[in-house]
Specification:
The chain has 112 residues and is of the alpha+beta class. It is built from 1 helix and 5 strands; from the N terminus they run αβββββ. The strands form 2 sheets. The protein has a 3-stranded mixed beta sheet, with no helix packed on it. The longest helix has 15 residues. This is Peptidase inhibitor I78 family protein.
């Protein structure tokens, strides 16, 4: 008898884990997902602009030697790599990328 109760309790807990995301009602009667909190802690109600790395402010680095750049003064996340190096293809709009040419100078600055 105790084994049956234990099995029933475990099955009930397992089924409870299958519950979906909380839904809120909409005007047309169709359920819509609850709002998702963004990285800043604001509850999103519309289209939010993705975070930017402000690459336009760092275009002055183009042409400078990599060795002369203080990377600690640049925003993070930061990725510095040589042209032709293998890099991940994940897009991160808040990441500043510095591409270094064969001569050791910055040839490109962009977000991503």
């Amino acid at each position: 008898m105790t084994l049956r109760i234990l099995i029933a309790a475990v099955a009930g807990l397992a089924l409870g884990g299958c519950a979906g995301w909380p839904m809120t009602g909409s005007k047309d009667g169709e359920p819509e997902p609850a709002p998702i909190v963004d990285r800043t802690g604001d509850v999103g109600g519309g289209e939010a602009a993705p975070p930017s790395c402000a690459a336009e402010r760092y275009q002055v680095l183009v042409g400078q030697l990599r060795a002369e750049i203080d990377e600690a003064s640049l925003p993070h996340p930061l990725r510095v790599y040589n042209r032709g190096d293998m890099v991940t293809q994940d897009y991160r709009p808040d990441r500043l990328n510095l591409v270094v040419g064969a001569d050791g100078r910055i040839v490109e600055v962009y977000c991503g």
